[in-house]
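Handover notes (outgoing to incoming on-call)

Open items:
1. Nuclease SbcCD subunit D: sequence verified, structure written out, both below. Nothing else pending on this one.
2. Nothing else urgent.
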Amino acid sequence: MRILHTSDWHLGRSFHRVNMLDHQRAFLDHLIETVRTHEVDAVVVAGDVYDRAVPPLAAIELFDDALHRLADLGVPTVMISGNHDSARRLGVGARLMAKAGIHLRTDPAGCGTPVVLADDHGDVAFYGLPYLEPALVRDTLGAEKARHTPVLRAAMDRVRADLAERPAGTRSVVLAHAFVTGGAPSDSERDITIGGVASVPAEVFDGVDYAALGHLHGCQRITDRVRYSGSPLAYSFSEVDHRKSMWLVDLGPDGVPAAERLPCPVPRPLARLRGRLEDLLADPDLARHENSWVEATLTDTARPHEPMARLAQRFPHVLALSFEPEAREDGSGISYAQRLRGRTDQEIAEDFVAHVRPGRAADTAERAVLRSAIDEVRTDEAARESA
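Nuclease SbcCD subunit D structure tokens:
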């Protein structure tokens, strides 16, 4: 059976205030074409269909269109809710959509009830484990503790119990939305840490042929049988080195999966640039990034005038700007009290200006303003003491 594994669409999400809806639509066009050209037998979507619990109408319409197109292809689709989704909202109409081959799994109580599909070699049972918020599902699943590992293990116990009752040779696929130990996170995933722990061991998925994971945005292999598809689009500059893709998984008659990465369309490459402003504007090697979305970190000792506007003249798609001056007098190894000892209020105030504005100390006019303010404070204090 040929399975297309994808996840983390985050429909409705923007990228540094850039509306991504057109790019998400282009990805879904690509997904539909991939299903058609690669003769996919089933599509699995491992959570975070939407970016938030109440998505914008345009995102809902895009999702609705994708479901209709998948149903028109006659290719069964199994999807689960992620930690960004509202499970109850996403699951509305699930029984009706199942008649069209779109199987939504959003109820934790249904972890052990699979969608069963068949090929020439027999049945394949698809188990959907939506994102399991430990405190909310512990009692439902009978987990020992309200922690990620006990809760996911309890859900997988239901999967293994159901699978044991099925005919010999039944192959199995689990969809799960979780942080599995060994996976590499990025800045764009929402923290799901509970009790100081966010991850679960890959061994929790023992006993199934393939675990199609969602949540981490980088496409990655944990084991041959446990993989993340990652998000189809980049949603933070920490994903600059990601190669966005989906897994095309061929599940053989013996249950051994063979996986191939299929690249996703890249609407615009990402670039992280670092250096002094004038160097970034003049370096010929940076010409390849002039059409990229750019995050720039300036290392000038003094903050340049209108740096964003000047960067945008060469890099019109610059989206983020930060400052990390190369040289700063931080008084390393000297306590705050020691740095202040023997210094006047005027000197301390002038040092503060130089600290927050590296490379440019207070000028004559600014020193006069500081002196006037300090004198006024002293006068007021003296007046209160004498009243």
